[in-house]
Amino acid sequence: MIIALAGRRVDAPGAETVRFPPENVALVEQRIAAWFKQHDVHTLVCSAACGVDLLGLMTAGRLGVRRRIVLPFPREQFRALSVVDRGEEWGTHFDAILDAVEAQGEVIVLGYAPENETAYVETNHVILELATATGAELDQPVRVLVVWDGVSRGDEDVTEAFLDEAYERGLAVEELSTF
Questions:
Q1: DSSP state string for 50-85
Q2: Taking a C-beta distance cutoff of 8 angstroms, is the pair 69, 107 a contact?
Q3: pLDDT tens digits for range 21-46
Q4: Does the global pTM surpass 0.90?
Q5: Nearest partner of 173 among 122, 128, 125, 111, judged by Cα
Q6: Hey, which CATH number is domain 2-177, 1.10.1510.10, 3.30.300.180, 3.40.50.450, 3.20.20.370?
């Protein structure tokens, strides 16, 4: 099975609205691992932000699952804006994963400018397209896994936009909770 994954980033310290509390990281990682095993995941396609993306990539690495990563802009900019702003320990995971996946030629950098307001939504589109194309190439089913709190942040909610796009494309979608 080919999986397109998206979900919440881990909450910043003192976050006003709790969506993915840091104390739930191990629980969410266990849920992702159990889901991957249950669904016999062959390939994971996602981005690499702190939280759900990196937990999925770490789990896939441990299980020997092929990993394909899509970044909206160059690695160092993405690392600064979407990874280490929640703690340097996420940067350590990011660096190890990116080094391994880049060595396999499985990282796509889209080249958007970080200030481009549509960069993350466009990345979602590419993730879904790549997962669908990989499924067709390998004659494998494609599913979308969204790991989040289930509550929209409004018009700017990139996780919800990913979920909506997956449904619009007619893909099979499953959700896991960050709580």
A1: TTHHHHHHHHHHHHT-EEEEEESS-HHHHHHHHTGG
A2: yes
A3: 999 999 999 999 999 999 999 999 99
A4: yes
A5: 128
A6: 3.40.50.450
